[in-house]
Amino acid sequence: MAIRAFLSFVQEDLNLVNLFRGQAKNERLDLEFADYSIKEPFDSRNVDYIARGITEQIKYSTITICLYGPSTYTSKWIDWELNKTLEMGKPIMGVYLYNDGRIKYHPAPLKDWPKLPWDIKNIVQTMEQLAIRYRKGRT
User: Fold this and answer.
1) What residue ranges carry the coiled-coil annotation (predicted)?
2) Residues 111-129: pLDDT tens digits?
3) By residue range, what is the domain housing residue 116?
């Protein structure tokens, strides 16, 4: 069964996010990504439209993965996406994109959730464990 992951990230990390997507596909994992990246600033006139689109993507996802770099913790949208996922009763997890000490803070909603280095097999294993717990909690 495919795990549908909503990827939460800031636009400045798009190149690394695309590398992450490619690596997951190359590993031939049973993994499906839903991606609704933010193209407009948070204070845009289209906030409601953007929020509805993101909510739909999260609704059909199993888990939200926050792929984060040094400045991700400052994004209001990242916090909103993670909190929306939790509000829907779904699990979240973080993957830090750099392992060289430049990331000092993680997004606040990740406080009590797994935060992993970029190791695709470990990430998928953690996703599967969280998805199983989520499904058991819903039945």
Assistant:
1) none
2) 999 999 999 889 988 998 9
3) 3-138
